[in-house]
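[Q] Does anyone have a clean structure-token version of this?
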Amino acid sequence: MFKEPPIVIKGILFDLNGTLIDIYTTESDDQLYRVTTNYLDYYGVKIAPCELKRRFFELNRMQRQQSEEDFPEFDVAKIFQQIIGDYHTRPLENTAELARSTAVVFRAAGRYKLECYDGVYEIMRDLKKRFLLGAVSDGQSLWAVPELQSVNLEDFFQTVVVSGDLGYRKPDIRLFKQALDALQLAPQEVIFVGNDMYRDVYGAHAVGMKTVFFKSNQGDHSYHGADADYIIYNFNELPRAIEFLQ
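[A] Here you go.
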């Protein structure tokens, strides 16, 4: 009887925050709204911190509610562009650019931690020699890409897919498929590594990838119907997981 050859793993896809990057940010701290309104004031945008906070969450919620997507993602630049348009007191040449820079200030003011988990650099250097690597992350490119650069991870990846560019987030299978298409690999040839049972494991399994769940200090650690092929509790355990799944 003909026996099909085993499928060879050729690529590894990663979630970013909570998987490779140990990050802590907040959108609830009053201090970040004070900093952001001070920044906007230099451009003639007059809004009180408490009002900015209210409007930020209101517009965020409205974007998601008005989306036709099952798993909608917000667009932070559009939120700030709307706020700038509503509260500016003098003509502005480029509200879109100011919205983007305001979003960066907002993120910076609310960021308290940004570093890689132990073992990430050494393991990623080794994996890059043997596999095609990519990332699939929920978030905003305005934040995700500079943060990747800040922790010196950007050059490891052949592709980086960020939900904010597309308007929908994990577990939507289109995010995973876009990364697979960029690597020109089939789902069966790729392992997905993530720290959220629903967004990462459930989503990647739905596409047909094997999964490694990193039980880190972030993410949902359980979801009914989601079972990882391998669970690690420290990033240094990842090579063993990949060897097991090959």
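[Q] Thanks! Anything notable?
[A] The domain at 11-25+115-245 is CATH 3.40.50.1000 (Rossmann fold).
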